[in-house]
């Protein structure tokens, strides 16, 4: 409440002293004809920013957490002297801007991350900006027609909704807010100016007419007057990390955009592969739908919809580079689907195979726009229609229409990957772990089973060792089979299993009664009817 009173007092002073827009250049990149000139002049006249015609403001640059903190401290007239030490793990008390960071953190406006770091030089998203501003100025309000790309499950959704209600944020012409995009310095400044001076707020309707023209020339796209935004993986494979930013130099091919998982596998030595244990958790394939849970700098925490875990209804969680994701409002629910059933395949930008677009994994699923000759015209999340060879995929009306497999179907599909190197947390045909290969094979055949071995061991139908059939899952646990399940194999008959043992090995066939497997056998489950 004290902060709110201070803000109103400051606003009164602002209105009593600010009347005209300066005709002098404010910054090198903010001329008199710049769209934000009036708002930035306003902030400069109150000392919130400091104009300098010889310097750039950085209107299109991504604002950092420290730069935002400084603007908010000045806007709120917070006392930055003698602030309690928030005990940041990355900033010491002798940092020249420590008082600003301490003040904004102690006010509960910009929090340290889960590791206690303030991350002063890290940019942040438009969604996070909304949260900071709502906290700082104690804004209120809701609206019944939110931006089309702000899902109710987003942790930033309520704050964005508040900015929209108060005409502080009016979004883009297509009624999107782009919550995952990093906010620019100019946009953050404009939002503050609109909060402090309502004359800057946009009075136009906050929900423009949504175009009815399809975003892509897709005959199967469902006509609609509204759009449901989905977030999809936009690289061949994205790895989900247990924490953001813990990657090494050798992991660059896996976190770059585009990724190159084959190169990543080839450049890691054995020690580097073993290091991934408990650092990466799973993977998601190109075009796969995910749910956004959280954002931290250039990383986004997502949940993979089709990978079951009992503790999160949205799916398997983990951190991925934000650049690996793309938001799309295209509705392809009326389209048939292509499921890649080759070991891997290539998408092309033409049917002459001269312009390769991306290599994709077994079990990648994409909407089919058209079938023509030897090609499937499939829709990608961001770059429109690409071309997939018919011989590399099977086409179905939808996922529910995938025919249930036979035991032979499951076993033969898994045998395609014999000799493939193991990858911890791998669910793609560039590298599988023990449960990942079985999850992928079953998903390819229309059956979604849990992602991890210890969850796979809790579903399906229990099967005795004497009644094993090809396609059953066999499990192994510590303490002579009585502890926690740590490994799974695919039973193929004759007392043998196909499995991916560990980072030192490859996909292979072994007896379920060989050595440690005999000692630690813990049971089996059947997922085939």
UniProtKB/TrEMBL annotation:
Which domain of life does this protein belong to? Bacteria
Describe the location of the SLH domain by residue ranges.
23-86, 87-142, 143-206
Q: InterPro entries, per this entry?
A: NLP_P60_dom, Papain-like_cys_pep_sf, Peptidase_C40, SH3_16, SH3_YKFC_2nd, SLH_dom
Residue ranges constituting the NlpC/P60 domain according to the UniProt record: 404-528
Signal peptide start and end residues: 1-23
Q: Which GO terms describe its molecular function?
A: cysteine-type peptidase activity
Record's Gene3D superfamilies?
endopeptidase domain like (from Nostoc punctiforme), SH3 Domains
Record carries keyword RNA-binding: no
Q: Which GO terms describe its biological process?
A: proteolysis
Instruction: Report keywords, A-Z.
Output: Hydrolase, Protease, Signal, Thiol protease
- Specify whether Hydrolase is a keyword of the entry: yes
Family membership noted in the UniProt record: Belongs to the peptidase C40 family.
- The name on file for this protein is Hydrolase
- Species assigned in the record: Psychrobacillus soli
Taxon lineage: Bacteria, Bacillati, Bacillota, Bacilli, Bacillales
């Amino acid at each position: 409440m004290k902060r709110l009173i201070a803000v109103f007092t400051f606003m009164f002073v602002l209105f009593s002293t600010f009347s005209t827009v300066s005709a002098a250049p404010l910054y090198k990149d903010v001329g008199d004809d710049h769209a934000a000139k009036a708002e930035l002049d306003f902030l400069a006249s109150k000392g919130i920013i400091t104009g300098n015609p010889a310097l750039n403001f950085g209107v299109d640059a991504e604002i950092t957490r420290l730069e935002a903190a400084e603007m908010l401290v000045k806007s709120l007239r917070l006392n930055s002297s003698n602030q309690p030490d928030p005990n940041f793990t990355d900033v010491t008390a002798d940092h020249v801007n420590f008082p600003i960071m301490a003040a904004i953190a102690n006010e509960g406006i910009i929090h340290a991350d889960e590791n206690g770091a303030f991350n002063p030089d890290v940019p942040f998203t438009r969604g996070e900006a909304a949260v900071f501003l709502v906290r700082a100025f104690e804004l209120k309000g809701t609206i019944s027609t939110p931006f089309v790309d702000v899902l109710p499950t987003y942790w930033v959704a309520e704050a964005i909704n508040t900015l929209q209600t108060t005409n502080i944020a009016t979004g883009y012409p297509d009624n999107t807010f782009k919550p995952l995009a990093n906010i620019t310095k100019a946009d953050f400044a404009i939002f503050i100016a609109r909060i402090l001076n309502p004359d800057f707020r946009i009075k136009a309707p906050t929900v423009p007419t949504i175009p009815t023209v399809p975003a892509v020339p897709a005959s199967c796209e469902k006509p609609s007057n509204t759009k449901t935004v989905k977030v999809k993986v936009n690289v061949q494979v994205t790895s989900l990390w247990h924490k953001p930013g813990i990657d090494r130099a050798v992991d660059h091919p896996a976190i770059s955009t585009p990724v190159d998982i084959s190169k990543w596998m080839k450049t890691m030595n054995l020690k580097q592969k073993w290091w991934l244990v408990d650092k990466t958790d799973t993977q998601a394939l190109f075009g796969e739908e995910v749910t956004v849970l959280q954002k931290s700098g250039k990383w986004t925490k997502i949940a993979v919809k089709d990978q079951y875990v009992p503790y999160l209804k949205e799916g398997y969680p983990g951190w991925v580079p934000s650049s690996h994701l793309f938001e799309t409002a295209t509705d392809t629910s009326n389209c048939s689907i292509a499921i890649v059933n080759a070991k891997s395949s290539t998408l092309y930008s033409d049917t002459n195979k001269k312009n390769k677009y991306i290599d994709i994994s077994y079990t990648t699923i994409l909407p089919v726009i058209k079938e023509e000759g030897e090609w499937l015209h499939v829709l990608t999340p961001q770059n429109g229609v690409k071309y997939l060879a018919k011989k590399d995929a099977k086409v179905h009306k939808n996922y529910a229409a995938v025919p249930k497999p036979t035991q032979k179907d499951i076993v033969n599909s898994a045998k395609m990957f014999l000799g493939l190197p193991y990858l911890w947390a791998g669910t793609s045909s560039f590298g599988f772990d023990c449960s990942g290969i079985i999850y992928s094979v079953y998903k390819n055949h229309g059956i979604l089973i849990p992602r991890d071995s210890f969850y796979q061991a809790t579903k399906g139908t229990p099967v005795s060792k004497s009644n094993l059939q090809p396609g059953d899952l066999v499990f192994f646990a510590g303490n002579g089979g009585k502890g926690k399940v740590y490994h799974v194999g695919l039973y193929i008959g004759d007392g043998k299993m196909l499995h991916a043992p560990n980072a030192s090995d490859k996909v292979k066939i072994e007896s379920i009664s060989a050595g440690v497997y005999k000692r630690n056998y813990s049971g089996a489950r059947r997922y085939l009817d």
